Amino acid sequence: KAGVTQTPRYLIKTRGQQVTLSCSPISGHRSVSWYQQTPGQGLQFLFEYFSETQRNKGNFPGRFSGRQFSNSRSEMNVSTLELGDSALYLCASSSTANTGELFFGEGSRLTVL
Amino acid sequence: QQQVKQSPQSLIVQKGGISIINCAYENTAFDYFPWYQQFPGKGPALLIAIRPDVSEKKEGRFTISFNKSAKQFSLHIMDSQPGDSATYFCAASWNTNAGKSTFGDGTTLTVKP
Q1: Where are the alpha helices (DSSP H) in B1-113?
Q2: CB pair distance less than 8 Å for B98 and A42
Q3: How far is the C-alpha of A57 from the C-alpha of A85, rounded, in Å?
Q4: Chain B residue closest to A56 (CA)?
Q5: Are A100 and B34 in contact (CB under 8 A)?
Q6: How far apart are CA B35 and CA B46, in angstroms?
Q7: Whether A45 and B101 lie within 8 Å, measured CB to CB
Q8: Apex CA A106: angle with CA A101 and CA A107, to 5°?
Q9: In chain A, fewer beta carbons within 10 Å around the N or the C end?
Q10: Which pLDDT band holds residue A11 (cuts at 50, 70, 90)?
């Protein structure tokens, strides 16, 4: 069974640009969550999507947005990039059985110059 | 407000020793407490998890001890090996909100040969 796939793995952007990250969850998983990981702030919850609907949202500005498609694949977008947005963005999927376990991808490393 | 506090930030243990990482939570609504292990360049992966109806869970060399009254839980790694060197995160969530997990800041474990 394939794991969670995130693309791109690495990207470099400049301030003011926007970026779109993609995530393909494990087959059959309908919940997709996004987390921002930085050395200073640890893993911070961004948002969760379930069946194309945003189910939960973390404390991030409106520049951070996401969506989920009918095949459960998800994208997140960050507009007007700031230096502080440099981070590893992790996507995680979980099953509808609500076992509590998150399956993470390897992340997309964003560097903002 | 940080809802899950993890300590220590870093830990160095000799091969064969016991590694102990502690976490404390604030929200008594949490009912799922997992530990994730993350290697460099990889996403976190579930190591072991516990629910508040038990005080201890053991899987191989890994044990979670849970103290509901103190709102604390800890990870014990017995017979620590160099391959255990990684960053460990404790987390907490509501079972029905697994996608929205709250993570500790992480502990970097180094096991010296």
Answers
A1: none
A2: no
A3: 17
A4: B100
A5: yes
A6: 6
A7: yes
A8: 105
A9: N
A10: very high
CB pairs under 8 A between A and B: 70
Residue A86 Ramachandran class (φ > 0 left, ψ -120 to 50 alpha, else beta): beta
Pairing of strands B107-112, B86-92: antiparallel
Mind listing the pLDDT tens digit for each residue in A79-89?
Answer: 999 999 999 99
Q: What is the pLDDT of residues B92-101, one digit of tens each?
A: 988 667 778 8
CA–CA distances in Å: residue A70 to residues A63, B49, B53 = 23, 31, 37
Residue found under tokens 């194309």: A52
Which two tokens mark A28? 């059959």
Best of A10, A34, A38, A43 to disrupt the B interface by mutation (most B CBs within 10 Å)?
A43
pLDDT tens digit string along B14-55? Answer: 999 999 999 999 999 899 999 999 999 899 999 999 999 999
Q: Which of A81, A73, A97 is nearest to A5 (CA)?
A: A73
Pairing of strands B86-92, A74-78: unpaired
Do B99 and A94 lie within an 8 Å CB cutoff?
yes
**Euclidean distance between CA atoms A108 and A101, whole angstroms:** 21
Distance from CA of A29 to the nearest CA of B (A): 11
